[in-house]
Amino acid sequence: MQAEYDGRQFVGIDLHRRRSVIVRMTEDGEKLDAVRIDNDPVALGLEIAKAGPDPEVVLEATYGWYWAVDVLAAAGARVHLAHPLGVKGFAYRRVKNDVRDAADLADLLRMAGCRRRMWPRRRCASCGSWCGIGPSWSRGAAG
């Protein structure tokens, strides 16, 4: 994994109550970084700053996601929500861990067919799966 990358980045966050995992990816799907942080606004802000200006960020809409969306939006990220049960690929994996979950969320966001705004639990017209990428909470975006 390489830490230095100047292009557009996609970030997947597997959010939990106490700690979360953040995975940063390039537009080509190369994993740049995977880090586990304590759920703290300062720690999240420092990690999202590594993604450069205006990153695309997706996180699971699980318990307590509101504070994370506020921190990410203040940092200039375009934030998308994913329904935790709406990601079809999660159920069929043999290996399930937080890093894989965050990486899969980032992959779904960076795929061209699933990147447009959709409400959670809505079937994607281009790929046919329940990708569950939710509405954007970015500066000036209509939810």
Shape: globular
Poorly predicted runs: 112-123, 126-135, 137-143
User: Which CATH C-level class is it?
Assistant: Alpha Beta
Whole-Å distance between the termini?
Answer: 34 Å
The biggest sheet, with number of strands, parallel, antiparallel or mixed sense and barrel status, is: 6 strands, mixed
Backbone CA Rg: 14 Å
Given the structure, what is the number of helices? 4
- Beta-strand share of residues: 15-25%
Compute the average pLDDT: 77
CATH topology: Nucleotidyltransferase, domain 5
Total domain count: 1
Spatial strand order of the main sheet: 3-2-1-4-5-6
CATH-derived architecture:
2-Layer Sandwich
User: Which H/E pattern describes the elements?
Assistant: EEEHEHEHHE
Task: Bin the helical content.
Answer: 10-25%
Structural class: alpha/beta
* Count of strand segments: 6
Walk me through the structure.
This protein is an alpha/beta fold. The chain has a single domain (10-136), classed as 2-Layer Sandwich (Nucleotidyltransferase, domain 5), CATH 3.30.420. It is built from four helices and six strands. The chain has helices at residues 41-49, 66-74, 88-91, 98-110; strands spanning 10-14, 19-25, 31-38, 56-60, 78-82, 133-136. α1 (41-49) crosses α2 (66-74). The longest helix is centred in the last third of the chain and has 13 residues, at 98-110. It is globular and about 35 Å long. Residues 112-123, 126-135 and 137-143 have low confidence and may be disordered.
